[in-house]
Amino acid sequence: MVYSTEEITEPFWADFPSSASGRDPLAIQNSSVVIYTRMMVGITNVTNRIRYNGFYCWLLDLILAKTTVKGSVNEQMRYIRRAELLIAYMMVSEFPDVTGVSGSAFAARNLNDHINLAEGADWESKAAGYNLYWTFKGGVFGQYYSGVVRELGLINHPNTELNIYTVTAYGSELGKCFGMNLPKGLTEIFWACLFKGKATLEHLKALIPFALHWIPESAEIEFYRKMLLSKDDRSTEPTYYRKQTIKLLLKSLAGQPEGTSSLPYNFLRENYQLHCGDEILTQNAASAWYIYELNELLHVALEHFHGSLLWSIDVFPQPLNDQLEWLLQQATQAFEDNNIDVWAFTFNEIISLHVDNKSDTYQHFDGMQTAFREGQFGICIFEAVNSLACIYRDCKKQLLQIEVLASKPEYNFNRTGYAVFMIDDLITGKNSLSLAGYIRQLFELAINLHVFSSYSKTKVGQSLVHNYFIEDGMIWRARETNPGRTTPRLQNTVQYMADIGWAERRDGLLFITESGKTLLSDEV
Q1: What is the C-alpha separation between 156 and 99, in angstroms, rounded?
Q2: Which DSSP string corresponds to 141-170?
Q3: For position 69, what pLDDT does the model report?
Q4: Interior CA angle at 64 toward 93 and 172, to 5°?
Q5: How much of the chain exceeds pLDDT 90, in percent?
């Protein structure tokens, strides 16, 4: 009998999954995920190259036309997997420095003059003892891209009437645009490789026009440009948050004529600082990304309490209370070095200090991260407390608006870890405490969140997610994680922008192109 984690919630003997989970140790990042999901429909953290979208539309039509076994999703998936591996081999062979190619690690290890696609791609080969390029049965397409191309209106998923993936009229148009950039006869060479399950280095060289990182100026590249600027989804009231975000990124890039190597985070910081203290938050992508960054700053600050505890304990049991007292002593010293008595000052007074001196939020936020990396946990907590005070100062006048925006159907950000909830938990509910009491309570909050989150995840079948265990007043480290932000799909958005010519990379830096400048000047 096959069990699902929805049916069986009690522990039972079974193999662990292949990978550990728990990158959100306090289970507070859901609201950030919802924000970037709504802002960047059709782009995920793992969809690296925009040309995969056109390739899959072209490929699905090709398989439908060529295969002799109709209506079988398994047969369709056999050729999809072989095609993905073939593209990976071509990219590794001809463009080894290009990133964002799924399956490239496998292809690099196995590249030779006589390539057996069937052995490396067919799901049946796994039972025969062969290593596969992709361990998810649906391949890269099934695991990463199928949902994306459906969100973009390019394909339909299998259903009871038609048990295969099909291309929509819109997707078929893109597939034809992709095919127009393939020289005559190349489709037959590609299909022959798939059908036979074999390829040679000579074949790979011939398949260069399939390159994922270079798209000729053509109907295909224009399709991608229009697709990214189109409405986000099929809702009654269309939104254009993806388009707005792309233009915000390009505007940030245009303001850095010397180029940059960190566009997404430069943009997030600039956008946050631009919106601090705004009397009105407009319902648009810029406000949403401001709220996203507000979430992230709050989340990461609290995670540094959790991280400081985790990295200061041992793998052997030690008294939890002693460790908390030690961390409080370290933080006390850091505050004393800045002429602040943690027993005399309240957290509210720290907020007032930052209102008066208008200190930079990111100066404290960066200082917190630097101190953590250096193992200076007292300074880390000092900077985390100051970060939280600055964040509250920045958004205090906007809290009602931030709460209202979350309830709008177009946003629906009102999830675990949302800024107004975090501020209530971290600040307004505790601002009358002495700094010593405040620090102690944030450590306890982080511990409680992590323990609750870890047991909840374990209950639904995830592998070890406890960072530490606590029993009979003793604590010991079980696994090591670092505080971290979510990845908001913007890195791959920047890659898409480079792929279609709105930005370009030179000597490791990113620059806006003339095409990107033209888009910025377009008011449509």
Answers
A1: 29
A2: IIIIIHHHHHHTTSEE---SS--S-EE-HH
A3: 86
A4: 80
A5: 83
pLDDT of residue 162: 83
Structure confidence at residue 409 (pLDDT) = 81
Phi (first) and psi of residue 218, to 5 degrees: -165, -175
Give the integer Cα–Cα distance in Å for 422 and 126: 47
pLDDT at 19: 36
pLDDT of residue 285: 95
Residues of the chain short of pLDDT 70, as ranges, are: 1-22, 234-236, 459-464, 523-524
Which burial class, exposed, middle or buried, applies to 233 when counting CB atoms under 10 A from its CB (0-12, 13-18, 19+)? middle
How many CB atoms within 10 Å of residue 384?
29
pTM for the model stands at: 0.91
Per the structure block, which two tokens stand in for 52?
């995969």
pLDDT at 461: 55
Nearest one of 296, 295, 305, 297 to 441, comparing CA atoms: 305
Measured between alpha carbons, how far is 237 from 231 in angstroms, rounded to an integer? 10
C-alpha to C-alpha distance for 324 and 318, rounded to whole angstroms: 11
Q: Which residues, 6+ apart, have CB-to-CB distance to 77 below 8 Å?
A: 123, 137, 138, 139, 142
Tokens matching residue 104: 């490239």
Measured over the CA atoms of residue 40, residue 41, residue 45 and residue 48, the dihedral's sign is: negative
Confidence at residue 523, expressed as pLDDT on a 0 to 100 scale = 62
Residue with tokens 């593209």: 87
CA distance 54 to 340: 60
- Contact of 320 with 475, CB cutoff 8 Å: yes
Question: What pLDDT, on a 0 to 100 scale, did the predictor assign at position 254?
Answer: 96
What is the DSSP annotation of 457-475? Answer: HHHTT-----SEEEETTEE
The C-alpha angle with vertex 207 and arms to 204 and 209, in degrees rounded to 5, equals 145
**What is the C-alpha R_g of the chain?**
26
pLDDT of res. 195: 97
Give me 416's structure tokens: 């675990």
Structure token digits, residue 129: 């003892």
Per DSSP, 6 falls in state: T
C-alpha to C-alpha distances, 383 to 255, 265, 305, 345, 368, nearest whole angstrom? 30, 20, 11, 16, 5
Other Cβ atoms closer than 10 A to 4: 8
Cα 341 to Cα 12: distance, rounded to the nearest angstrom = 51
